[in-house]
Design brief:
The structure is a homodimer of 349-residue chains.
Chain A (H helix, E strand, L loop, with lengths): L7 H8 L3 H8 L7 H14 L5 H8 L4 E6 L5 H16 L3 E6 L8 H9 L4 E5 L1 H4 L6 H8 L5 E4 L9 E3 L3 H14 L5 E4 L6 H16 L14 H13 L9 E4 L2 H13 L9 E3 L16 E3 L2 H17 L12 E3 L15
Helix pairs in contact in A: 1-2, 1-3, 2-3, 5-13, 9-10, 11-12
Chain B binds a DNA duplex (30 and 30 nucleotides) through helix 2 and helix 4.
Chain lengths: 349, 349
DNA sequence: TGCGGGTATGAAATGGGTTTCAAACATGCG
DNA sequence: CGCATGTTTGAAACCCATTTCATACCCGCA
């Protein structure tokens, strides 16, 4: 049953040379005579030999592996971020190992152990767990593994934590949304979604409140824990039932497209028209955004680009090479119809 | 800059014992005196020492790593499958390495090399690449790496390929949809989506055609390449423009929820009411399905369960243990409103 | 006292490569 | 021809843990 794995020694014996020479042929080292090279190459091909990465890693002390910690991959935002990172890692010869850390679960000891034993060259972190205060210890804990290991965070920058950071400017996304609504004439604008623990949610709220102040608008404001469609649905109910029609907001900024989707559904059920009675704006530009009714105006955060650049920068830090890596694009507003402006929405009529 | 990594030898020296003893303490081996054990443990804790998995792997010839090849993870179906697999792998002490193989790209040599070098204990494959005929060589190619390596496929079973298979009964999902529509009185039923290369798409079509025959219905039938919302939108246009109103189908089976979403949008634009004028049914029960208008009747394939069971079975094959692993649930129809039956749809009014 | 049996510990081999260093060989030049 | 230089090649050390085998030690019993 057990097929013996062929080693460099087998190849060497078969080709009548030393393992050293085989190694040199594989590494395409210069000082091997054409005749020997050809002979060895033939045996290698014949046996489909590939050098064991495990042995290489042991020697080189580099695993060419990066760890990625995300809340999961079922949320399209993180899925895209991961795929972006994956593509870049592939291109640079690195492998990614994904660790999922569900939002509300604490960091289990067994997972920590898993991470510790896998000797990854560097780590990329994103999502609420990284940012949430109680679990902020995640980074110090990772630091204890190997002090010199570079850690990169994709989130609003953390104070007094020694990490590379890819700035995902979440407050700018909400500022753009807000200004867009303002320019359309809206003055009573509400904010929906988020949870207190997540710093990136907090970041958006702060951006919202700050920008509202700048625009000298009253803070018609409703904060509802959660990032799901259901949260959006419930959020709309609570928001609108707590306000008289006079004070009802004319626009709704949702923390993400899911919340916006739930909101649209609920508004529809309540007979409130979008965008005539209320404008709705989402965030993330998820694939379904063009297909809600009406098509959702939203903000594209380019998660795939963030993932790609994260790997670039991490590898650069690892190799000390002066790579001139690109920066991810800043958030950009995608205008569809849910705010009453029709631009760039695709229809086939 | 370069922090020397602490080895078992450092610990041994510091504790004044041999590496062997340290290893025994870590493995909680019996024959170590209480005094020595305590002494060694103290040094281990002090230095936060964890034995290098790489060295362990080299010796044990098992990497406790499974490779997963999927078309990607941005499609929620695969994202859920991956997370299910991930959870089970975590529980069993295994690590997953994800390789993404975009649907239409050929298997690049460099990716194959990546897979080859990572010595994974087993592999899980799913998605069109595995099934598509021209690339069917994927499995033979993987086999050349190490003949004894177990390979598990999550798809309709492949003939004459020696793999463990988790049967994702795609034809049954479309059969269920079809019978549901039939029972509601529909007779002119169309099928939308899929592409010729993908066997799982073919599987569904075959199921559709076969079941239509059994029910003695005419094959009002439109096949449109693609699995995206846009494909659904275009598909509806082509389907309805090619048929007179007389022969227009009263029901539409979409190959997935995305196609269904695009279809719903397009039908809405064309002023065709759902479900009054036409019933629409999807597949996958994606998170947005309850929030389309009307809420989408669809089929849940339980991808997470498939992923979970896949890891269970693969690990069982690896360890030769007679695990009695569970089977994933078969596909189940989720009835919402897009076919004119209102059941279990959540509203807050 | 001498010997069998059990426990505690360590030396050395192992796994599969890479790298350093040295040796063998060929070549060029005075 | 002899020496310096350059090219091929291989032996041995190394990476870091585990495991086998051997040794040292202690105890009890004849």
């Amino acid at each position: 049953m057990e097929t013996e794995r062929i080693t460099i020694y087998d190849i060497a014996r078969e080709a009548g040379v030393s393992p050293t020479t085989v190694s040199r042929v594989i590494a395409e080292h210069a000082n091997v005579s054409a005749h020997t090279r050809k002979k060895v190459r033939k045996v290698i091909d014949q046996y489909h030999f590939t050098p064991s990465r495990i042995a290489q890693e042991l020697l080189s002390k580099r695993s060419l592996t990066l760890g990625v910690i995300l809340p999961g991959v079922t949320h399209p935002y993180y899925a895209e971020m991961f795929e972006g990172a994956y593509q870049e890692a592939c291109r640079l010869g690195y492998t990614l190992i994904l660790f999922c850390l569900p939002q509300n679960e604490p960091l289990s000891a067994s997972l920590m152990d898993q991470i510790a034993r896998r000797r990854v060259d560097g780590m990329i972190l994103s999502g609420g767990i990284v940012e949430a205060t109680p679990e902020r210890e995640l980074i110090p804990m990772l630091r204890t593994l190997r002090r010199s290991m570079p850690i990169l965070t994709i989130c609003p920058p953390l104070p007094d934590v020694d990490c590379i950071n890819i700035y995902s400017d979440l407050s700018s996304s909400v500022r753009q949304s807000l200004r867009h609504l303002y320019n359309l004439g809206h003055r009573r604008i509400a904010f929906l979604g988020g949870s207190y623990e997540s710093r990136s949610a907090g970041e958006r709220e702060l951006g919202f409140l700050d920008e509202m102040k700048k625009l000298d608008l009253p803070a018609v404001y409703r904060h509802e824990a959660g990032h799901t469609a259901e949260a959006g649905q419930l959020g709309v109910i609570k928001l609108l039932s707590s306000l008289t029609d006079q004070r009802r907001p004319t626009a709704l900024i949702c923390i993400n497209d899911l919340v916006a989707l739930g909101s649209l559904t609920q508004l529809h059920h309540m007979g409130i028209r979008v965008p005539e009675d209320i404008a709705v704006i989402g965030c993330d530009n998820q694939f379904f955004a063009p297909y809600t009714s009406p098509p959702l105006t939203t903000v594209d955060l380019h998660p795939a680009e963030h993932g790609r650049v994260a790997v670039q920068q991490l590898v650069a830090a690892l190799t000390d090479e002066a790579m001139n890596f690109s920066q991810p694009r800043p958030a950009v507003l995608i205008i569809r119809e849910s705010c009453g402006v029709s631009l760039g929405a695709r229809r086939f009529e």
